[in-house]
Design brief:
about 250 residues, alpha+beta, nine-stranded antiparallel β-sheet, about 50% helix, about 20% strand, elongated
Length: about 250
C-alpha cells in the first residue's frame, strides 16, 4: 500500500508538471517566471522516479511469484531481486523528497517576493528542512545498510553458478573474475592477467590469454578445477576451484 501511494504521487506530479498546471498553480506559489533550470531539474528527477516506480513494481512481482521453484539458483536470484527492490525503493523515495524540496524552494522565493506573512514563509522553510532531512536519512540508510544487504546476496549466491551465470571462480590465493562480455581477469599474488573467453560447453568455459602466446585456461565446473595448456599440448590441472559465485558486483 505504501509503495502504491508513492507511485501514485510520482505519477500525479509527472502528469501535472508535464501539462503545465503545476507551473501556474497559485497555491504552490509557482508562476511562468520560474527559472527554467527548476523545471528541468524536476522533470529529470520525476522521469527517474517514474522509471524506478516501474522497476520496483516489476521486482515486487518477481519477489511474490508463488510458482518459482525453490532451488539454490532461484534463491540467489531472489536475494538479488530483494536487494534491488530495497535499493531502488529508497532511491525513489529520495528523488521524490528532492522534487518536493525544489518545488517548495521556488514557492519560498515567490512568497518572499510577495511579502507573505512570516508564518507562511517559515512554514515553507520548515517544509524544505523536512524534505532535506528525508534525503539525508535515506542517504545515511543506504550507506549504513548497503554492506549488510550485499552480504545477504553473497550468502545466497556463493557456490551457485553455471557456465552461463559464472562471474567469479576462486582458487587458493587467486580468482578468475568476469569483467565484461567475453572478458576475464585472473588476479593472484603475481598480479593481474587478461583473458578472452573463446567458447563454452555444458560444464566449462575456455579462455585465451591476451598477454601470453597460445596459453589457454579451462574453468571446469564439473570437476571444480582450473586447467591449462600451452599451444596444442594436453590439458593439465592447475588449481582446484574452492567456490564460485554469480555476484560479481558484490564480491571483493
Amino acid at each position: 500500500m505504501v509503495f502504491m501511494k508513492k507511485v501514485f504521487w510520482v505519477l500525479f506530479l509527472s502528469v501535472f508538471i508535464n501539462s503545465g498546471l503545476i507551473a501556474q498553480d497559485r497555491e504552490l506559489g509557482l508562476n511562468k517566471d520560474a527559472p527554467s533550470q527548476i523545471g528541468s531539474s524536476v522533470a529529470e528527477l520525476l522521469s527517474g522516479s517514474v522509471g524506478m516506480g516501474h522497476q520496483v513494481e516489476d521486482l515486487r512481482e518477481k519477489i511474490e511469484d508463488p510458482n518459482l521453484p525453490d532451488t539454490p539458483e532461484n534463491q540467489c536470484k531472489m536475494a538479488r531481486h530483494m536487494y534491488d527492490y530495497w535499493y531502488v525503493s529508497l532511491t525513489m523515495e529520495m528523488h521524490m523528497a528532492q522534487v518536493a524540496s525544489i518545488l517548495t524552494q521556488q514557492r519560498l522565493v515567490n512568497l518572499i517576493l510577495a511579502e507573505a506573512a512570516p508564518e507562511v514563509i517559515e512554514a515553507a522553510r520548515q517544509s524544505i528542512r523536512t524534505q532535506e532531512d528525508v534525503v539525508g536519512a535515506v542517504q545515511a540508510e543506504l550507506e549504513r545498510d548497503r554492506p549488510g544487504q550485499q552480504a545477504t546476496v553473497n550468502q545466497k549466491c556463493f557456490d551457485v553458478a553455471t557456465v552461463d551465470t559464472l562471474d567469479i571462480a576462486y582458487y587458493g590465493q587467486g580468482r578468475f573474475v568476469k569483467t565484461g562480455a567475453n572478458r576475464w581477469l585472473e588476479v593472484n599474488y603475481g598480479g593481474g592477467f587478461l583473458f578472452e573467453q573463446i567458447r563454452q560447453d555444458a560444464w566449462s568455459l575456455y579462455l585465451k590469454a591476451l598477454d601470453r602466446h597460445e596459453f589457454y585456461i579451462q574453468i571446469d565446473l564439473w570437476r571444480n578445477m582450473i586447467r591449462f595448456r600451452n599451444g596444442n599440448q594436453p590439458w593439465r590441472d592447475l588449481y582446484a576451484i574452492e567456490w564460485v559465485s554469480s555476484t560479481r558486483d558484490f564480491v571483493d
